[in-house]
Amino acid sequence: MSTLVTLPVLLPILGAALTVLAARSARTQRLIGIVVLAAVSVVAAVLLVAADRTGPVVAELGGWPAPVGIVLVADRLSALLLLISTVVTLAVLVYAIGQRISDYGRETASTTFHPIFLLLSTGVSLAYLTGDLFSLFVAFEIMLAASYVLITRRTNASRIRSGMTYVIISLTSSLLFLTTIALVYAATGTVNLADLAGRVAALPEGLRTLLSMLTIVTFGIKAAMVPLHFWLPDSYPNAPAPVTALFAGLLTKVGVYALLRTQTLVFPGTGPSTVLLVLAVLTMVVGALGALAQDDLNRLLSFLLVSHIGFMLFGLAVYDARGAGGTALYIVHHITVQATLFLVSGLITRRTGTVSIDAMGGLARRSPALAVLFAVPALTLAGIPPTSGFVAKLALLQAGATGGAATAVVAGFVVLASLLTLYAMVRVWVRVFWGTEKEPLPDPDPTDELVVGTARASRPMYAATVALVAVSTAIAVAAGPLSAITEQAGADLMARTPYIEAVLG
């Protein structure tokens, strides 16, 4: 079983190498990518069942035990997030394959897209499974390198500028992370997370607080937490739809996962965190208000992405098992729905030839199926019953209601941000799908991959989007068993003992 823990990291690397060797065969590249991600999904499901039944599954790389050696750990939280992330990645790959077929033909291969796509999956898997801070840093660097290539493929000046912003901010965050690792190692003599759980507790309180704040800032940048969010709305909207969907669905959630793991395991709190509660409110409100000011559909969705990071921060800030479990459940929901909305946005812009909401209109008459595909995830994001968004927000509100006066007040901001999200989604619906039909605009730059092939979208693109809508619906249908897993995951996070004993023995 411990051998399986290594496969989500090794299989995408092997697949990336094979797609490079198959650079002349587009069909072979597509087949390799789909098979690899499907296999990782199966492995993740097996690990989730094993972790739920018997506890965390640990792999000691090279036979070296922790804390000396590198370990990979699959507990309930990491296995669940690995499963949902890989399923979303697989759907996005199918969408991207369909888009490339529509734009460049069935026989056109790529020397960069498929290998880099799989390497990004490698970084995400390593981030979820790693048991030490330095390997987590390596995972972030793999994701950074892969995402920079994806965001600047077939580039233009605008995308170069946004890509440089993304890279500069990410490198700054990485430098801060590396500095934090050095300080942690200097103070404790280890970077293993389970070992740090005991050693950090023996440090002076001031030093503990400093190291905790450094990790919050570092991972807050990765997660696009206000006021460290400014890079995201300028970067994500300038990438092709499948790339933006993958980034929005996975990369910021990896940052939230790192926050959740370190703040519960290494820097555990004894009650609600005032700092995180304030940051959660700012993130929810600033993101939602920023969305209302946008005419660009992708920028609007990017600001809503920022806003809903605040929901996850709120669950963490409660610092109890309910809050941590609510955050885990919300991450699962949000990975799916945010990726779906950006895929639908890609279909909309290919129909209309523009990302300007005011330049669209009457799309429901021309494409009622597209209207349904937008409506379902939009209502899910707003948290309308009985969607998965409602189930996840209900878990957070219950945690806030029982966490004290401060968390109850912040729970009110959760409701406010949800209403603002609903208003933003209704505004998009009215302007894009209702009203007078408008003629599609010509592609302003046929050489890039941002808005290409107006009114052309292949069946795989629609099939992948429908599949993600189905996954989101399945989360709501299976709310009972899924909530039980996330509640137990939250209890494990706060107890810390199952993780520590599994790693250190």
Q: Your description of this structure?
A:
This protein is mostly helical and 505 residues long. The protein has one domain. The chain contains 20 helices and two strands. A two-stranded antiparallel sheet has the order 1-2. The longest helix has 32 residues. The chain starts with a helix and ends with a helix. The mean pLDDT is 89.
Concise overview:
Keywords: Cell membrane, Membrane, Transmembrane, Transmembrane helix. This protein is mostly helical and 505 residues long.
Helix content: over 70%
Structural class: mainly alpha
Strand order of the largest sheet: 1-2
Query: How would you characterize the largest beta sheet?
Result: 2 strands, antiparallel
Cα radius of gyration in angstroms: 22 Å
Indicate how many domains the architecture comprises. Answer: 1
Portion of residues in beta strands equals under 5%
Q: How far is the first residue's CA from the last residue's CA?
A: 17 Å
Order of helices and strands: HHEEHHHHHHHHHHHHHHHHHH
Uncertain segments are none
The shape is globular
Number of strands: 2
Mean pLDDT: 89
* Tally of separate helices: 20
Helices, strands, pairings?
Elements (H helix, E strand, L loop, with lengths): L1 H20 L4 H29 L2 E4 L10 E4 L1 H29 L8 H17 L3 H20 L4 H32 L4 H7 L5 H19 L8 H4 L5 H25 L8 H19 L4 H22 L2 H32 L10 H4 L1 H15 L5 H14 L3 H29 L25 H19 L1 H17 L1 H8 L1
Antiparallel strand pairs: 1-2
Helix pairs in contact: 1-2, 1-4, 2-3, 3-4, 3-10, 3-13, 3-18, 4-5, 5-6, 5-10, 6-8, 7-20, 8-10, 10-12, 10-13, 11-12, 11-17, 12-13, 12-16, 12-17, 13-15, 13-16, 13-18, 13-19, 15-17, 15-18, 16-17, 16-18
Protein name: Na+/H+ antiporter subunit D
Organism: Pseudonocardia halophobica
Subcellular location: Cell membrane; Membrane
